[in-house]
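User: Design a sequence. Structure:
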């Protein structure tokens, strides 16, 4: 997995905020999740999964965000003809049902990560789903990858069928990533989106999430979305189409990727944001909190991605994780997820709270029936 999923084009469109959206059905009040990212290769390895589950058993970690569909295709054995046709060739989790049962037995919330619009597999197999150039040929990003067109409703149906299968498999949440358009660098050809009409980018992204949320809520499954960290503090939409007000109203939880290493020098008045994880994340998440308050959105509706990797100086370890967590709590939220592209958390594990001793008797039984904590554990 690439850390650069969180490197936005630092430009904002002059698009105005959309009108408040019709609220679709909501699955349930979002729980407090403190999780880790589990990439497709880790999820396919029983040995690696035992190690990550052991980490959760001994710490406050209570959620796994597992690659179910990423840039390489799907990561499970599908029974849906449309999904199987776009599966890719990067292997699958050997026994998904057993894995989910094991996670739930260890009181770990299973969350399905589904990469949406950066999908070279589906683009290769479905030419009609691609973003085009003005001459009608396929558009490619700087790495030569084709992307699929967010305006295409046949593509939507494919993505939603993946989400349906994740829900049927027992995932309690479907977390959509790459809910965005590719960066429109001036060095690249103009992107053409068949079927777009006059609908602006933030609108169609919100429409997709709203459709997913209405569909998944019927199954009691939450709809969440990963977005660039910059979206919390930029007014207007990024050129990739992400805008806070549209997306926050279209999902149960929004996960901004507020990695301090990805903010440019001078952000929030900080000379070196990467060296100030508390100040950086507190500023970013406080901005999100204020915007949600204006929208009337209460509860743990923001669950930031925190930096569990090193990119530049300083090296990130336990102390940096503790500062990031404290910033989230001080900004008004309790949940978070750790991102490490290789799903390696040894360097920051010392910054995790230890799991409290289980109460005895009837209290112990009650605790087992409630796998997700509802109160904050201060660092």
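Assistant: Done.
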């Amino acid at each position: 997995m690439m850390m650069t999923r969180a490197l936005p084009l630092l430009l904002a469109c002059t698009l105005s905020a959309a009108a408040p959206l019709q609220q679709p059905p909501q699955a349930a009040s979002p729980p407090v999740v403190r999780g880790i990212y589990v990439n497709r290769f880790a999820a396919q390895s029983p040995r690696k999964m035992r190690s990550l589950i052991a980490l959760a058993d001994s710490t406050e970690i209570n959620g796994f965000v597992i690659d179910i569909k990423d840039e390489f295709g799907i990561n499970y054995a599908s029974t849906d003809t449309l999904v199987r046709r776009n599966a890719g060739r990067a292997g699958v989790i050997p026994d998904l049902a057993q894995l989910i049962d094991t996670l739930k037995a260890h009181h770990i919330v299973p969350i399905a990560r589904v990469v949406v619009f950066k999908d070279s597999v589906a683009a290769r197999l479905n030419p009609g789903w691609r973003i085009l150039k003005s001459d009608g040929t396929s558009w490619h990003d700087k790495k030569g990858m084709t992307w699929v067109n967010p305006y295409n409703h046949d593509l939507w149906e494919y993505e939603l069928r993946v989400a349906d299968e994740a829900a049927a498999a027992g995932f309690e949440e479907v977390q959509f990533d790459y809910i965005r358009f590719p960066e429109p660098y001036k060095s690249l050809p103009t992107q053409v989106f068949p079927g777009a009409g006059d609908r602006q980018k933030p609108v169609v992204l919100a429409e997709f999430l709203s459709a997913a949320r209405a569909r998944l809520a019927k199954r009691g499954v939450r709809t969440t979305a990963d977005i660039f960290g910059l979206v919390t503090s930029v007014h207007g939409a990024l050129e990739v189409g992400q805008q806070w007000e549209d997306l926050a109203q279209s999902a149960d939880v929004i996960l901004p990727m507020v990695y301090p290493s990805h903010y440019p020098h001078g952000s929030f008045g900080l000379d070196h944001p990467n060296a100030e994880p508390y100040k950086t994340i507190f500023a970013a998440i406080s901005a999100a909190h204020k915007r949600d308050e204006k929208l009337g959105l209460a509860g743990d509706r923001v669950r930031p991605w925190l930096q569990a990797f090193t990119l530049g100086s300083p090296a990130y370890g336990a102390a940096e994780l503790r500062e990031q967590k404290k910033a989230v709590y001080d900004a008004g939220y309790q949940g978070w997820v750790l991102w490490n592209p290789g799903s390696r958390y040894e360097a920051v594990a010392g910054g995790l709270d230890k799991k409290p001793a289980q109460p005895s008797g009837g209290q112990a039984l009650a605790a087992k029936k409630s796998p997700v904590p509802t109160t904050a554990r201060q660092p």
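The two ends are 29 Å apart (CA to CA). Confidence is low (pLDDT under 50) at residues 9-22, 360-379.
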